[in-house]
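Internal tracking record. Fields below are filled automatically when a chain is submitted to the structure queue. Please do not edit lines marked as system-generated. If the sequence contains nonstandard residues, flag them in the REMARKS field before resubmitting.
Queue: standard
Priority: normal
Entity type: single polypeptide chain
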Amino acid sequence: MRPKTSHRRTIFVAAPAILATMAMAILSGCASSSSSKPPVSAAPHQGGSVTVLEGAGFAGNWPGLDPATDTDGAANQSYMDSIFGELFELTAGGKTTGDLATGYNFTNGGKTVVVTLRKGVKFSDGTPLNAAAVVYNWTRDLAATCTCKPVFLTPPEIVATGPYTVSLTLSYVDAPFINALQGSVFNWIASPTAIQKMGEKAFALKPVGAGPFTVVSDTPDSELVLKKNPTYWQQGLPYLNTLTFKTVAGDEQALTAMEAGSGQAYEGMSTPQLRSAFAAKFVTTAEPSTSPYDIQLNTKIAPFNNKLAREAIYYATDAALLDKSLFQDTYPVGESFTAPAGLFYERVVPGYLAYDLAKAKSLVRQLGGLSFNLGTINVPTAIEMNEAVQTEWQQAGMKVSLSDYDLTGLIGAFTAGKWQAMLQTAGAYDPGTGVGVCFRFCSTSPFTGVWDTHLNDLLIGAASTTNPATRQSLYDQAAAYIAQNAYGPFLFPIAGYNIAVKGVGAPGLTTPLPVTDVNPEVLWQYAYNNG
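SYSTEM-GENERATED OUTPUT FOLLOWS
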């Protein structure tokens, strides 16, 4: 029997892995009580600096770095993690580990989560990071403009239950709550004193947190210079004296800059054709993807409020050919919102409409033609994919124009509601968190193209139970229902690469960490430069 799910919240973030074993024991489980330094091939040297390049189409844009007012959210996780630290961080093997928090537990039948904070932690302005500071931040975050804020369908009760304990109570069970903190504003705690003294505008340019680094200078969308936080709670960390993030136009520019010595690391290289060029000179680490590409269709407006138009898209899309022509058959073609590196993977979905060009042409003729715009984010691989998809669809007689956006523009296009089709990703390590399936297919999300209460029930129900078998069944049903209604075809998960010069390393940069959504986070407190 499908569980009742009338009240549920989805976090629109880049979110962490959740272990199946944890899902079974989440009502009584606790996170690790301490952080442990990850192994490295050589002992990290103290001191030195690293300049990290960020592509302008994604993480290279940061209008401000106040968690509650930043608009780019999880794309800026490297900056946020470096300045604010995290309540909980994701380590190797998909383990959620306490950072500024030491643990958590679920009470009240799972409707209340109690977070225990690490005692003695101070913000870099000398004020305490305690329960009152977390309550202040979480309450303020609820009014955030960032799309990575939690969206509660019933108001939460947030209370300091002690000097270092905070409880959040909902009217429903939200089992993935702790794991969904990755990339969420709830994971980044800012100094209330600094916000109140400086004001929001000034704070966004020089934020104060309790992370491993503090801000030296911030030129939004261009360069962020950080220095070692001498009061950081982990003795001996961070290793680096300075950490700088610098925007570059894209993958080719990053390669040129690294060859010239202008950068020692680059996050999220996404052009497969450049992999060999990077690998010839630098340490190139593949990111295990958990987010399949999908074609989102806006079912509220023409032409995709007509199911026949949606079916034509399915029949006209040859995912296997796209994989072969663009990525040399690198990625497994699938028919759902899951991927081999994540939970609840299902490759073949009953009722999925496979590629059939003749049927696509027939439907286009029956519709009297099919004209629309296909958009995507402004990164090289996505743009190339859009062009290849356009070519396939035009072979079926469709007229397809293309658009691409930076992250802020993409968010604006979705929220305006006039988009027609979008090439995006729909998945996460756990489909119930982050930019998972609900992000693209639940009517509660501003980034959906589907408004279907039955699909809501299936997806939200799957994220509202701690039983893995029930979750698998509900996700399987949801994938079949999406196929039955032709709500949007899936292609294959695509992995990016993180790049570093020899001698530079960090967990997530030079050793794989689970990709929660699009890119893995990098644990910058452990970053070193042995060069």
